[in-house]
Amino acid sequence: MAESTTISNTENLMKYMKLDQKGAVLAEYIWIDGTNGVRTKTKTLSKPVKDYKELPEWNFDGSSTGQAPGDNSDVYIRPVAIFPDPFRGGDNILVLTETWDPDGTPNKFNYRHECDRLMEANAKHEPWFGLEQEYTILGSDGWPYGWPKGGYPAPQGPYYCGVGTGKVFCRDIVEAHYKACLYAGIKISGVNAEVMPSQWEFQVGPCEGIELGDHLWVARYLLYRVAEEFGAKITIEPKPIKGDWNGTGLHTNVSTAEMRKEGGMKAIEEACKKLGERNEEHILVYGEGNAERMTGEHETASIDKFSYGIANRGASIRIPRQCAKEGKGYFEDRRPASNGDPYRITGVILETIFGGIEDVDLSKAEK
């Protein structure tokens, strides 16, 4: 579909994918690098595994991923979750890992470890999260797929949740990704075409605690891998096209036990007020380049002005009208950029609402 410089012949590949692995299992170890990207490498296992705790720790060259200096380059990856592999099938698995330094401390880009501690400390509040991952599909030339070469399509309007040629692009990538997520056990709850042509969104959740970050990162990995096979590129930059075009976000839906019970609107409003008091701290960890997206236009609030309101997509925090009607439920933080780290986002939200814990501060822009 997309023009690509990658040589790939699916028919030839499938001859080899069907070969007997003689009882061996391929484990694709996944980690987050120093640039907020995804890296992987494959390990052969002698037998199938049912739990990540059965898997060995591994390592990689951190000097090639922005995570360690060349003279002390080993970074260790410790398994934290496993998923069925939709590309290889069978007993083969995807292995999500955390990165650790040789001295036994978390690598400075390991935000999962701190987030997990916050989630455990606040488990009694039963925090649920649902994230809306927006992204843009590009051709091999880096221009949005389906757009005129070096030009622009008709203005925004017919593309959001659109149907039909000229209104949506690359639906085959979206459908393939959806099925891959379901096969892998990702809690993907839906997809839709977004406001800008070639811009799409998938939703993950509701998930409780650390599970949301785990599932979103693996869903991102699956999206990149699926796009490879179609010769397309995926960008999660918050403002991929300048001008009168919508940016891309990672809207974050949050609910706690206190918010879901009768009279929970009070807890929602209290949370919103606390979030407003730390707007700057949150913006620092809500993604790179977010100022270009959060201008007060294109369904965003101004980056330096906090607000919340019912059914208001121009506010920092939106409280759904149904929740206001029922007096309980959840709120949507619309500030996070599409390239934000879900561990940092969900962690700092809990930190702000319920207070921090010793030696953990996810509001810091740099570690």
Task: State the gist of this model.
With 367 residues, the protein is of the alpha+beta class. The chain has helices at 10-17, 111-121, 171-184, 211-229, 257-260, 265-277, 279-284, 290-293, 321-326, 342-354; strands spanning 25-32, 38-45, 58-61, 74-84, 93-100, 128-138, 188-193, 199-208, 233-235, 250-255, 308-310, 317-319, 331-333.
Describe the structure.
The protein has ten helices and 13 strands. It has 367 residues and is of the alpha+beta class. Strands 6, 7, 8, 9, 10, 11, 12 and 13 form an eight-stranded mixed sheet that branches. Strands 2-1-5-4-3 form a five-stranded mixed sheet. A hairpin with a 5-residue loop joins strand 7 and strand 8. The model has no long low-confidence stretch (mean pLDDT 95).
Radius of gyration: 21 Å
Order of helices and strands: HEEEEEHEHEEHEEHHHHEEHEH
**Structural class by sheet pairing and helices:** alpha+beta
> Which oligomeric state applies?
single chain
* Count, helices: 10
What helical percentage do the residues reach?
Answer: 25-40%
Report low-confidence residues grouped into runs of 5 or more: none
Shape field: globular
**Terminal residue distance:** 42 Å
Main sheet specs: 8 strands, mixed
Task: List key phrases describing it.
367 residues; alpha+beta; 8-stranded mixed beta sheet; 5-stranded mixed beta sheet; 10 helices; globular
Layout of SSEs?
Blueprint: H1 10-17, E1 25-32, E2 38-45, E3 58-61, E4 74-84, E5 93-100, H2 111-121, E6 128-138, H3 171-184, E7 188-193, E8 199-208, H4 211-229, E9 233-235, E10 250-255, H5 257-260, H6 265-277, H7 279-284, H8 290-293, E11 308-310, E12 317-319, H9 321-326, E13 331-333, H10 342-354
Parallel strand pairs: 1-5, 11-12
Antiparallel strand pairs: 1-2, 3-4, 4-5, 6-8, 6-9, 6-10, 7-8, 10-13, 12-13
